[in-house]
Amino acid sequence: MDGILNINKPSGMTSHDVVQKVRRILKENRIGHTGTLDPLATGVLVLCVGKATRVARYLEAGEKEYQAVMRLGVITDTLDAEGCVLETRSYTPPARADIERIMRGFTGVIMQRPPAFSAVKVSGIPSYKLARQGKAKPLDPRPVTIHGLELTSYEDPFVRFTVRCSKGVYVRTLCADMGEALGMGAHLTSLVRTRSGRFSLDRAVSLDELADIASSGSAHQAMTLIDEALADFPAVLIGDEEASKVMHGNQISCPLSLATSSIDVARVHDPAGRLLALARVVAGTLRPELVFSCCS
Predict the structure, then answer these.
(1) Domain span holding position 90
(2) Domain containing residue 13: CATH number
């Protein structure tokens, strides 16, 4: 069984918990996710099944969208509502315009420090394990991109907003940093991922729905084909001779339209229109990075 699943993750489960449950539902061990959601969070969790696990890194790179709620004036150790309260500050509620101004300062490419309670590894050990032992060290900040921040409602102390961002963004860190910029601190109280790349919440299935579909022998109906899931990458149709080269990992000439564009990766289709490979555009050539045995 090969394909992509768009799961509506429930609150209270880790992403690994979801993967484990789907493995049991589908009786398939080769399943991985394309971007962790914290236990508190709900929404789109994209899973790759079977041969589709090979394309996880390409799907993981897609833009993400979230709906979030942060609470002003309260700081927690995990930066979200599941942590221990470290400090409660008295403050004068900021004006809506002040919050929007701060948000504008957090758009674009910013440096963000991952939270101590995260899966980022320190000398091979997940940081959250060190944090639980009181041994966490500040993680190095790294560049991430916030494509858009929009304040949707504000009733002190709760600020609701949407965010469009690159992979690697921690929304709870964003809340904490915006709270500090406002002068009273903040933490994340609710998070829903509404989109990950091509996959949106309105098309996601719950674990119970997946179990029902699988029990009727129709699990494939909940899956997106690998080629369709990668449709954000442009497609190149090649002939038999070129297809033979690609199948053996050899580079071929790149269409001029791609060679002169800013596109990095393209799907390569054989003469029958089947997905043959993912190839990187390099100096006027298509260099196969991932070759399939003809996926539909």
Answers:
(1) 64-196
(2) 3.30.2350.10
| Same-domain pairing of 82 and 173 | yes
Give the pLDDT means over successive 10-residue stretches in the chain (296 positions): 95 95 96 91 97 94 96 96 96 98 97 80 71 74 96 98 96 97 97 97 97 93 95 93 93 86 92 94 92 67
Looking at the fold, whether 160 and 78 belong to one and the same domain comes out as yes
User: Peptide bond preceding 157: is omega within 30 degrees of 0, i.e. cis?
Assistant: yes
Which H helix or E strand runs over 178? Answer: helix 171-182
What is the secondary structure of 202-266 as a DSSP string? GG-B-HHHHHHHHHTT-GGGGEEPHHHHTTTS-EEE--HHHHHHHHTT--EEPPHHHHTSS--EE
Domain endpoint, select from 177, 206, 228: 228
DSSP helix/strand/coil, 126: strand
d(CA 127, CA 255): 45
* Pairing label, strands 42-49, 186-196: parallel
Which residues have a catalytic role annotated? 38
Q: What is the pTM of this model?
A: 0.90
Residue 113 corresponds to which tokens in the numbers above? Answer: 């420090």
